[in-house]
Amino acid sequence: MKNIPDVLQDLLSLTSKGLVRSEIRELLKLTRQPGIISFAGGLPYSGLFPIEEIKDIIHSILDKEGEIALQYGPTEGDSRLIEFLAGWMKETEGVDVSEDNILVVSGAQQALDLIGKIFIDPGDPLIIGLPSYLGAIQAFKSIRANMVGARLDKQGINVETVEDILRTYTAKAQKIKFVYVVPDFQNPSGVTLSLERRERLLQLCYEYGIVLVEDTPYRDLRFEGEPVPMFRSLDEKGYAFSIHTFSKLLFPGTRLGWIVADKSIQEKLTMAKQPTDLCTSPLNQSIVYEFCRRGLLKTHISNIVELYKKKRDIMINALEEYMPEGSGIDWTHPEGGLFLWITLPENMDAGELFPKAVEKKVAYVVGSAFHFDRSGHNTMRLNFSYPSEEQIDEGIKRLANLIKQELSQTSLF
């Protein structure tokens, strides 16, 4: 590792030696140049942050319960917030969740870290999509898990591949610990896992005795189509754990999420959380609880959905208008969420194209960043939630012109 003296380098753990910087966060540094239209970040639109409401809520909390909100809190979380979350999941998902099934965490990223810690020993195999959420890849890599990839298509993770993996590892007397999926408007692809595949995947978990971890940060941000039941609502045996966050529903500065799991596993997760941060910020929990108690969450989500749908439509319309026809370029049509996924012709490399795109003042995330095996060289992720409507149209035009130029040089177009 650079700039670390040899004497300290020798003291580092194997885990720390394997840590690497987030590829996306490094790319984002390049996109901060003046004039760049960036589709790279996974950022919610900050213009919708309820700043005035939060100002009022903070003043109210400090006046009424400041000594409690500014103090340490229980590791499990604020009981008022937990009660609200149990009721919210019953109302929105029809899922009966006991308060004993909920652990409040410092964002969904901590949830991934905790789940990894309680299930994975170094070298243990788990199944993850190709592509998949980069933060999950980082979390699992940091605990030295053996990630085994299953390709995605427009119906989500390929369940037949998952079954083949389970069969192969069982024959080798190796135990897959869990399957990790983002079933709704997946990051990065934007696709939603079909009901048929959800049901089959859950049956495979029962058959092989493994856990199903569903990550649901975008589930409430549906623009069209009918919701597909959560794994948690389909699960009859307690094999499915669900991860939730307020980062996309409210604002990411809360660093607030929750895990729903069987009570016995929640106890393990709580014990794993205690040495990590003792407790999630009581002040932030109080703020979010009060926002929800005042009945503001539903309206806020509706405003997000309305705006993001409009932006998604603008991006898809721009792709249809500007991208070259008959070139083999394909993109997903997300029914919700923040992201859209583009697949280029096989002989194009999105990584090699990226610096040229930055020169044209447009940026995206290279698709290989979401493949732990570094495949997906001809793919890219575009975010439509953060840029303005005008930027989306102009940015897609710039990107399309660059792709046309590249195709013409390779005699493909």
Question: Could you walk me through the main structural features you see in this protein, from its secondary elements to its overall organization?
Answer:
The protein is an alpha/beta fold. The protein has two domains: 7-38 and 299-409, Aspartate Aminotransferase, domain 1 (Alpha-Beta Complex), CATH 3.90.1150; 51-297, Type I PLP-dependent aspartate aminotransferase-like (Major domain) (Aspartate Aminotransferase, domain 2, 3-Layer(aba) Sandwich). It is built from 15 helices and 14 strands. It has helices spanning 6-9, 14-17, 23-30, 51-69, 79-93, 108-119, 134-142, 159-171, 195-208, 231-234, 263-277, 282-293, 297-322, 350-359, 389-409; strands at residues 37-38, 102-105, 125-130, 146-153, 156-157, 178-181, 211-215, 240-245, 257-260, 330-331, 339-343, 362-363, 365-366, 379-383. The strands form three sheets. The protein has an eight-stranded mixed beta sheet with strand order 2-9-8-7-6-3-4-5, sandwiched between helices. The protein has a four-stranded antiparallel beta sheet with strand order 10-11-14-13. It has a two-stranded parallel sheet with strand order 1-12. β4 and β5 (156-157) form a beta hairpin. α6 (108-119) packs parallel to α7 and α6 packs across α11 (263-277). The longest helix is centred in the C-terminal third of the chain and has 26 residues, at 297-322.
